[in-house]
């Protein structure tokens, strides 16, 4: 019944796994805020070319929900990606991808606090496995380092990105009833506009790097696949099975991101990475198997 939603979510997480690799490859070829700007420039150009007639039809409803659409663009699109690309200056693509496994746990926590959505014991077990995997990666295989607060600065930055995307996912329950093209186009436009001051900040600090050939290729990939394809499919997935269950599929980002990092960048695959990946996959399998009988819907 939910096979389409599962398919959408798998493809979305594959694109996001590649996003962390693209961000790592971008270092030295395009600066983080410049990459964020061009990512959304490409995405906005494409989605508006596809969506203008639909936007005109949806405008009466969309206009009433502009604050929420602005929120989606600023928090889910700009904040998440700008912080993620900044984190990749200080930590590895493998770490960034595996740390994103904390997003499902945050989604469940926020949904429970705000809406008292049911969580099964199996799902709690899945969260716990995810948490251990994230801690294992963030501490570089040395859990005692967490007690000494010796996290890499890039890993610490990722906490901001993780919270931002979890909040965005939960907030999708309030999305207006408009076509998916309009739902993608307007937040993307707001994301593009909010990256302008970030680029200005980079320029004023003398840290801005205009894209070279590799930088343009990376920006194009993030604009098409990590932005449009992934975001649209993720929205479809959330519509199909709800934010809690859809959020669990983000645990696949570490799987795809780690494999792509090893294959494309040549990063070292450590034993603790493998253990973290097993924990991430185990967490999603256990939590999905043990979901509450009346699984939460997108609107509930």
From TrEMBL:
Signal peptide: none
Subcellular locations according to the entry: Membrane
Topology class, membrane: Multi-pass membrane protein
Claim: Transmembrane is one of the keywords in the record: yes
Keywords from the named record: Membrane, Transmembrane, Transmembrane helix
Protein family (similarity comment): Belongs to the EamA transporter family.
Superkingdom: Bacteria
Organism: Rhizobium deserti
UniProt keyword annotation of Magnesium present: no
Annotated transmembrane regions: 38-56, 68-88, 94-114, 121-139, 151-171, 183-203, 215-236, 248-265, 271-290
Every EamA domain range: 4-137, 153-286
GO cellular component labels: membrane
Name the UniProt record assigns to this protein: DMT family transporter
Pfam (any one): EamA
């Amino acid at each position: 019944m939910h096979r389409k939603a599962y398919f959408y979510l798998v493809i979305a997480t594959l694109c996001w796994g590649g996003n962390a690799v693209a961000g790592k490859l971008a270092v030295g070829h395009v600066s983080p805020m410049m990459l964020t700007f061009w990512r959304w420039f490409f995405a906005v150009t494409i989605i508006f070319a596809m969506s203008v007639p639909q936007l005109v039809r949806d405008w009466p409803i969309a206009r009433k929900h502009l604050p929420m659409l602005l929120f989606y663009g600023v928090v889910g699109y700009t904040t998440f990606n700008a912080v993620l690309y900044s984190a990749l200056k200080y930590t590895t693509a493998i770490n960034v991808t595996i740390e994103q496994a904390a997003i499902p746990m945050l989604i469940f926590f926020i949904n429970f606090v705000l809406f008292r959505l049911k969580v099964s014991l199996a799902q709690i077990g899945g969260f716990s496995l995810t948490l251990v995997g994230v801690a294992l990666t963030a501490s570089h295989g040395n859990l005692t380092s967490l007690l000494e607060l010796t996290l890499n600065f890039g890993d610490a930055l990722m906490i901001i990105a993780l919270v931002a995307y979890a909040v965005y996912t939960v907030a999708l329950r309030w999305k207006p009833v408009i076509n998916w093209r309009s739902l993608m186009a307007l937040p993307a436009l707001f994301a593009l506009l909010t990256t302008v001051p970030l680029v200005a900040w980079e320029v004023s600090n003398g840290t801005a790097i205009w894209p070279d050939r590799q930088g343009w290729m990376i920006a194009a990939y993030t604009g098409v696949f990590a932005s449009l394809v992934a975001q649209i499919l993720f929205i479809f997935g959330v519509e199909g099975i709800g934010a809690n269950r859809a959020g669990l599929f983000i645990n696949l980002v570490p799987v795809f991101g780690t494999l792509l990092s090893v294959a494309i960048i040549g990063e070292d695959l450590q034993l603790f990475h493998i253990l973290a990946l097993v924990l991430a996959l185990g967490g999603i399998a256990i939590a999905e198997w043990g979901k509450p009988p009346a699984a939460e819907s997108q609107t509930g």
